[in-house]
Design brief:
39% of the residues lie in helices and 21% in strands. The protein is of the alpha/beta class and 598 residues long. Among the domains are: 198-338, no CATH class; 452-593. The strands form 4 sheets. Strands 10, 11, 12, 13, 14, 15, 16, 17 and 18 form a 9-stranded antiparallel beta sheet that branches. Strands 6-3-7-8-9 form a 5-stranded parallel beta sheet. A hairpin with a 2-residue loop joins strand 17 (425-437) and strand 18 (440-448). Helix 6 packs parallel to helix 8. The radius of gyration is 25 Å and the shape is globular. The N and C termini lie far apart (57 Å). Residues 464-578 form the GH3 C-terminal domain. Belongs to the IAA-amido conjugating enzyme family. It comes from Gossypium darwinii (Darwin's cotton).
């Protein structure tokens, strides 16, 4: 398998179109303050008179107001809100109320969040605007990527994408994940045409409904089109790591299918099976090449398998920030020198920023806010001096400021006003302004604001947890072990309460090493409230629970069974979900308690 010698320098989008969309973004980012004021005006004029806004504006004739005056009035009258504030309104829409509650446009589709952050899925409005902004950010990001990593026109993407089941609400609305709605939209097909890159798998694989069967077919078809694949992609890095973990187990079966032009009996869904069989034909020569590569790669623990199987691939593309960072080590193991390019910054609520610097490693990536997508406000956050009487997150909040007033180096919580009917909605993401692209800020994602680990006066975020686990896993790696995945739980049913961290690992590691990992993690939580509590034994020793192989696949299966899509799945980094805890505790095979504070 040798790389193609000629690469079309026009990249993965027409040269004129690239110039056009980059010029558009340069224009709106140079005038970001004015564009934001206009965007808010558009949202409020489009949704004038809806029930939610009428609570605050009453019968004011906002159509006749100056845009800047309307911006000030909006911030003074409409309060900051969370999903809990919108939930009753969204539920009425889901139940069939067709009155203009949040938007003047009738909402016929609702998005389901993954549910992994807060333990339950949230319903959110989804409109044509949602698909259009997804298409716009994909095209914009592709134009910037093609400057650094030009790819052949009409190449293919090995794209590990998955839909979830769509269901009907009581009122007859369609509900499903935002990614599922997008893959079913006209915009998804337009994206492929405009970027001149086509996914290897047909719709029957994407919409199969069984992620294990879809993954097998994605891999099989990606290998059949090996010389056409220009990049490897997924929504989240987790999906790529999951796919190659499956490949390690299934490569011989895949080679057999390529050799004979058959399809494994594991593919039982009729539409998926027919669609794939219509594409494949016997190719013994290709099967032999793949088999030789796999036998050799298996001996080196699959190091560098991606560029060996897809020598024309230019990069791996996925969301790699936040809770995806723990998977970067494994992704680099598979990809070796192939660049990892972080995808753009968004949420189920809406898109926020685009990665304009694809050559930066994921750890250093920033996202330039797109000022036409939503109206953005930023709550300044200042770290408190340690307060040992409070169990709230240690930040002092200032009054929200518009995009035009953010300061370099300052941390903020994001607030969105969207075309889909969310007004001054607190997203819960903490970001830092790392720079500016013209007049729009470049954001560095820090963490989700929700406090995830607390027993009493301790305050540890997802970021704190990932740092502690990272230090513990460094010890594990030194002795030949590998951390597959992890989560945590604050045990408060028994006194003193303590942190429990669940690890799934690969490799044989001595118990003394795991005990050392446990102690290193315990000592790595440097929050003052935690340190003082550990020293006084008001928080007990950290407990490391080693779970059996495949435990986190059971966690995944639980979420998939409850309506999540693999492409949108994120392992919950902290859980109080009693079903998940039951799975984790039943699968625990070893327990270690820290001696860090003895």
């Amino acid at each position: 398998m040798e790389a193609a010698q000629v690469v079309n320098s026009n990249g993965n989008a027409d040269g004129d179109y690239q110039y056009e969309i980059i010029s558009w973004f340069d224009s709106v980012s140079k005038n970001a303050a004015m564009v934001q004021t206009e965007t808010l005006g558009q949202i409020l004029h489009l949704n004038y008179g809806v029930e939610y806004l009428k609570k605050w504006f009453g019968d004011m004739k906002i159509q006749d107001m100056d845009a800047c005056a309307l911006e000030s009035l909006y911030a003074s009258l409409v309060p900051l809100a969370s999903h809990a504030d919108f939930e009753p309104f969204i539920q009425r829409i889901a139940d069939g109320d067709t009155a203009p509650i949040l938007t003047q446009q009738t909402i016929t589709t609702l998005s389901l969040s993954s549910g992994t952050t807060e333990g339950r899925q949230k319903l959110l409005p989804f409109t044509r605007h949602s698909s259009q902004t997804t298409l716009q950010i994909y095209r914009l990001a592709a134009a910037y990527r093609s400057r650094v990593y030009p790819i052949r026109e009409d190449g293919r993407i090995l794209e590990f994408i998955y839909s979830s089941k769509r269901l009907k609400t009581k009122g007859g609305l369609t509900a499903g994940t935002a990614t599922t709605h997008y893959y079913a939209s006209e915009e998804f097909n337009i994206k492929q045409e405009k970027t001149k890159s086509f996914t290897c798998s047909p719709q029957e694989v994407i919409f199969g409904g069984d992620y294990k069967q879809s993954t097998y077919c994605h891999l099989l078809l990606g290998l059949l089109f090996w010389d056409e694949v220009e990049l490897i992609a997924s929504t989240f890095a987790y999906s790529i790591v999951q796919a190659f973990a499956s490949f390690e187990e299934q490569w011989e079966e895949i080679c057999s299918d390529i050799k004979d032009g058959t399809l494994s009996s594991r593919i039982t869904l009729p539409r998926m099976r027919k669609a794939v069989l219509d594409i494949i034909s016997p190719n013994p020569c290709l099967a032999s090449q793949i088999e030789a590569i796999c036998r050799d790669s298996k001996a080196s623990n699959w190091y560098g398998i991606v560029p060996r199987l897809w020598p024309n691939a230019k990069y791996v593309y996925s969301i790699m920030t936040g809770s995806m960072q723990p998977y970067l080590k494994k992704l680099r193991h598979y990809a070796v020198s192939l660049p990892l390019v972080s995808a753009d910054y968004g949420s189920t609520e809406g898109w926020i920023g685009v990665n304009l610097d694809p050559c930066l490693p994921p750890e250093d990536v920033t996202f330039s806010v797109i000022p036409t997508f939503s109206y953005f406000e930023f709550i300044p956050l200042y770290k408190k001096k340690q307060d040992l009487t409070s169990s709230t997150v240690g930040y002092i909040e200032d009054e929200p400021v518009p995009l035009s007033q953010v300061k370099l180096g300052q941390e903020y919580e994001l607030v969105l006003t969207t075309f889909t009917g969310l007004y001054r909605y607190r997203l819960g993401d903490v970001v830092e302004v790392a720079g500016f692209h013209n007049g729009t800020p470049k954001l560095n994602f820090i963490f989700r604001r929700e406090l995830i680990l607390t027993v009493n006066i301790d305050k540890n975020t997802e970021n704190d947890l990932q740092l502690a686990v990272g230090r513990g896993s460094e010890v594990l790696s030194k002795y030949g072990g590998e951390l597959v995945d992890f989560t945590s739980h604050a045990e408060v049913m028994h006194q003193p309460g303590h942190y429990m961290i669940y690890w799934e690992i690969k490799g044989e590691v001595e118990e003394r090493v795991l005990g050392e990992c446990c102690g290193v993690m315990d000592a790595s939580f440097v929050d003052h409230g935690y340190v003082v509590s550990r020293r006084t034994n008001s928080i007990g020793p950290l407990e490391l629970c080693i779970v059996e192989t495949g435990t986190f696949n059971k966690v995944l299966d639980y979420f998939i069974g409850n309506g999540a899509a693999l492409g949108q799945f994120k392992t919950p980094r902290c859980t109080n979900n009693h079903i998940l805890l039951r799975i984790l505790n039943l699968c625990t095979i070893k327990r270690f308690h820290s001696t860090a504070y003895n």
